[in-house]
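Quiz preparation item.
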């Protein structure tokens, strides 16, 4: 099932490449956008929701934007997202090497106000290791 979904969303839309793939199948999903596309934020939101709807447990999501100097999404765009509030979202992760400080600041404000669990890591490898530690802590607490 996951392979079909990955094929479906590993496409080019209006020549903007994006990939959605499992870093750890069924646990950590990464959305990688290779061009600035603020007009497609609602499409990406729906893409992630389809994975969350098909999941049987929580999924952590790593967001990898195209470049460090991209224009951050507007506050209006951020407040229309539905995926961060899906009951199966674990943590949303931003990678510092791919996001500028203004984007991180805006997302931290939105996450604190909304209750979304946002984490920031330096690299994708650190994010995967950090999320594994968090998951292990959650499973021990249960």
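Solution:
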């Amino acid at each position: 099932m996951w392979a079909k979904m990955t094929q479906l969303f590993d496409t080019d839309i209006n020549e903007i490449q994006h990939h959605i793939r499992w870093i750890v199948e069924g646990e950590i999903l990464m959305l990688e956008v290779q061009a600035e596309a603020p007009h497609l934020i609602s499409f990406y939101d729906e893409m992630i929701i389809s994975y969350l709807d098909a999941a049987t447990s929580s999924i952590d999501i790593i967001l990898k934007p195209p470049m460090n100097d991209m224009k951050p999404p507007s506050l209006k765009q951020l407040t229309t997202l539905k995926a961060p509030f899906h009951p199966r979202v674990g943590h949303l992760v931003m990678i510092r090497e791919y996001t500028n400080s203004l984007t991180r600041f805006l997302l931290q404000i939105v996450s604190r106000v909304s209750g979304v669990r946002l984490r920031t890591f330096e690299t994708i490898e650190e994010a995967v290791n950090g999320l594994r530690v968090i998951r292990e802590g959650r499973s021990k607490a249960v």
